[in-house]
Each structure stands twice: as structure tokens, then as C-alpha cells.
């Protein structure tokens, strides 16, 4: 399956009504948006991996990323090979994130399988750009959900970042910080207790975002192991 064949397949699935719905959910990227649903993108990604194979699909992913199409970037996140990721490529992609769904799909399908990307969490958090900072916490959430090898103590190392950036009032950052905290708290009973304790500490910080993050996490995590 060639680059042009993939682009043609995406164009055929163009759905203007879905584009309007995506905008209502805060998805307004600078790239062209076709409104292709995630199930269709996953189906297409499966076909690509089956026909093309991992090494070639990674090269295709690099081309798709530069296509200037929103859904092509999500597809690139799914078909790229995490073992072939370089730091330069990761930084280049993250630097141009302009929507929460591309950010999250990259974290959940690709970055959470890359040791190089995981090592960059602290640097992503320090970055002042909204979607770069979101990447740090979306990646933490993805690791908490997917990575079975990491220990509880590995996630406790993220607590200081969660607390520090809980004061960021920007919508896509605070929601990701909250997501990371909640996902860590669902990983084990021990982490649940520690995450609730952290949420209570965050609640004492005098900002709207910190209180929202804390309240939401406390409610959900308190019920999780009942």
C-alpha cells in the first residue's frame, strides 16, 4: 500500500458532518480535517501493517505525518514502529501537536512503547506550549494503563510533576494532569491511596485548576476500589 493509496482512502472517507462534531469537542487543528472516525482509521492501519510490514510502515508513517491532513497524522501514530523512533523525530512531531486527539493517540499507540519518548517526559512537562506539556501527562496516563513492567515506585516519580503543573489553567493541560493522576491511582491499591493523598495536597493549592484536578480525582479514585 503506497502513500498515495492511503491518502486516497482517507479522502474517500471524508465526512464534513463529523468535522463539525470534532470542532465542538475542541478538535480544531491547523491541518486539513476529513472527519474520519477512529474505528475506520484503526481498520485502515491494520490493513497497512498487514500489507506493508513494520519497517516499511514506519517510513510510510513519516510521509503521512507530513501530508498536512489531521487523520493522516493519527494514522502515522498507529502504524509507526516505536523501535525505529529517534529523538529528533519525536521532538519534531511533538513540537507541532495542535489537537488533543493527535497528542493522545501518539502517546497511547506509539510513545508509550518508546524508551526514548518516556525519557523525555520531564522535558515535555517543562515546555510552555500547551500540547507539548499535555504530551507529558498523556504519556504518563498511557504508561499507567498499558505498561505492565513498570513498578509502583516508577509512577511515584511522576507525582512531583503532577503537583507542580496542576496550577496550569489551560484546558488541555489540566485535563491531562488529571488523567495522569487518575490513571496512576487505578493501577494498584497502594498507588490508589498515594494518588488520593497527592490529590488532597493539590487541593490545598489556591488555583481553580488545582482544585478541579483534585476534586475530580478524589471522587473517582475513592470509588475505584470500593
Describe this structure in words.
With 226 residues, this protein is an all-alpha fold. The chain is globular, with a radius of gyration of 18 Å. The protein has 15 helices and no strands. The mean pLDDT is 96. The longest helix is centred in the middle third of the chain and has 17 residues, at 130-146.
Radius of gyration from the CA trace? 18 Å
Helix content: over 70%
Main sheet?
none
Low-confidence stretches: none
- Going by CATH, the architecture of the largest domain would be Alpha Horseshoe
- CATH homologous superfamily (4th level) name of the largest domain: ARM repeat domains
Task: Please state roughly what percent of the residues sit in beta strands, choosing from under 5%, 5-15%, 15-25%, 25-35%, 35-45% or over 45%.
Answer: under 5%
Please report the number of helical segments: 15
Number of strands: 0
Structurally, how many domains make up the residues?
Answer: 2
Tell me the name of the CATH class of the largest domain: Mainly Alpha
Order of helices and strands: HHHHHHHHHHHHHHH
First-last Cα distance:
49 Å
Mean pLDDT: 96
Shape: globular
CATH topology of the largest domain: Serine Threonine Protein Phosphatase 5, Tetratricopeptide repeat
* SS content category: mainly alpha
Amino acid at each position: 500500500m503506497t502513500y498515495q493509496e492511503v491518502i486516497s482512502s482517507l479522502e474517500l472517507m471524508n465526512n464534513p458532518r463529523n468535522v463539525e462534531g470534532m470542532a465542538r469537542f475542541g478538535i480544531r487543528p491547523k491541518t486539513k480535517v476529513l472527519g474520519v472516525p477512529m474505528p475506520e482509521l484503526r481498520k485502515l492501519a491494520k490493513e497497512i501493517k498487514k500489507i506493508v510490514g513494520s519497517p516499511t510502515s514506519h517510513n510510510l508513517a513519516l510521509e503521512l505525518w507530513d501530508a498536512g491532513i489531521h487523520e493522516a497524522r493519527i494514522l502515522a501514530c498507529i502504524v509507526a514502529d516505536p523501535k525505529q523512533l529517534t529523538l529528533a523525530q519525536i521532538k519534531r512531531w511533538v513540537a507541532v501537536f495542535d489537537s488533543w486527539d493527535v497528542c493522545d493517540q501518539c502517546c497511547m499507540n506509539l510513545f508509550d512503547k518508546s524508551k526514548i519518548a518516556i525519557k523525555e517526559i520531564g522535558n515535555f512537562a517543562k515546555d510552555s506550549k500547551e500540547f507539548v506539556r499535555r504530551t507529558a501527562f498523556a504519556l504518563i496516563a498511557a504508561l499507567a494503563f498499558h505498561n505492565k513492567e513498570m513498578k509502583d515506585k516508577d509512577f511515584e516519580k511522576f507525582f512531583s510533576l503532577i503537583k507542580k503543573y496542576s496550577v496550569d489553567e489551560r484546558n488541555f493541560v489540566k485535563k491531562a494532569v488529571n488523567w495522569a493522576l487518575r490513571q496512576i491511582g487505578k493501577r494498584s491499591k497502594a498507588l490508589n491511596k498515594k494518588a488520593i493523598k497527592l490529590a488532597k495536597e493539590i487541593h490545598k493549592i489556591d488555583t481553580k485548576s488545582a482544585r478541579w484536578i483534585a476534586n475530580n480525582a478524589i471522587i473517582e479514585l475513592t470509588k475505584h476500589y470500593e
